[in-house]
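User: Please predict the structure of the protein below. I'd like the answer in C-alpha cell form so I can feed it into my own downstream comparison script.

Assistant: Understood. Taking the following sequence of 259 residues as input:
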Amino acid sequence: MEQLRSKKGFIIDMDGVIYHGNRLLPGVKEFVQWLYDEQKQFLFLTNSSRYTPLELQKKLAWMGLEVDQSHFYTSAQATAKFIASQMPEATAYAVGEHGLLNALYDTGVTVNEIDPDYVVIGEAQTYNYDNIVKAVRFVNGGAKLIGTNSDLTGPTENGIIPACRCLTAPIELATGKSAYFVGKPNPLMMRTGLKMLGTHSAETAIIGDRMDTDIVAGIESGLDTVMVLSGVSTRETIQTFPYRPRLVLSGVGDIPPKN
C-alpha cells in the first residue's frame, strides 16, 4: 500500500470504481480528498462514451463530489481524436449519446447518413434494429467500423448490462468486418492519459474494476495495477486470467491511510 500511496499519478476508472449509476460508492469522497491533500495528479479515464467531461463533472457534483472538468477523459474523446488523426474532415455515422456526438463535432468529424467514411458505435439507449441495418449497409459500402470501447458489459445500480462490444457484434457478424476499438486497453488512450497527467508510467497507478480492460491496460503500459472489487470483476474471476493486479482492494476507500 505504501508503494501505491507514493505514486505521483493516478488513472482511475469511473463505473464500478467511483459510482454505480447515480450512487457514489463508499469511501470515494475520502479517496478524492486524499488525492487533493497529497497533491497527486489524477485523471478519471472512462470507457463510457455517453457523457461529456462537463456532464461527468456535473454528475459527480450532483452526488456531492466536486472535481474540476480537466480531470476527465472519455473513450468518446479518444475515438474522435483517433478518427481526426487518421482522416482530417472525416464523416461518420455515429450510434451513441451526446458524449460521442459532441466529441466528434469538437474534432471536426461531421455526421453523414448517406456515404460516411466511418461507422462509430458507442453506448446508446436508442440503439435499435434500424441502427444495425444502416451500419451494416455503410460498412458493406466501404465505411470503417469503429467501437468506442471493447467492454462487453458494464455495472449499474440494477446489475450488469450489455455494453459497447455487444452493440458492435451484430454489425461485425453481418458484415464479416472486425471493429477497431479505441478505448482501454488500447495504448492510444493510455498514452494520452499519461500525457494529460504529466507523469511517467513508472510513477503512475491505474485503479479499475475490470481485468480485461483496466488491469491489462495497466500491465501493458507499465503502470502499477490496483483492482477494486466494487464493480465487474470478483476474486473468483481474477483467477481465470493469466495476469494479475498487484493489489486487490474492496474499494478506493482502502487507499487513504486511516487516522
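That's the full C-alpha cell string. Residues 75-86 form the longest helix (12 residues).
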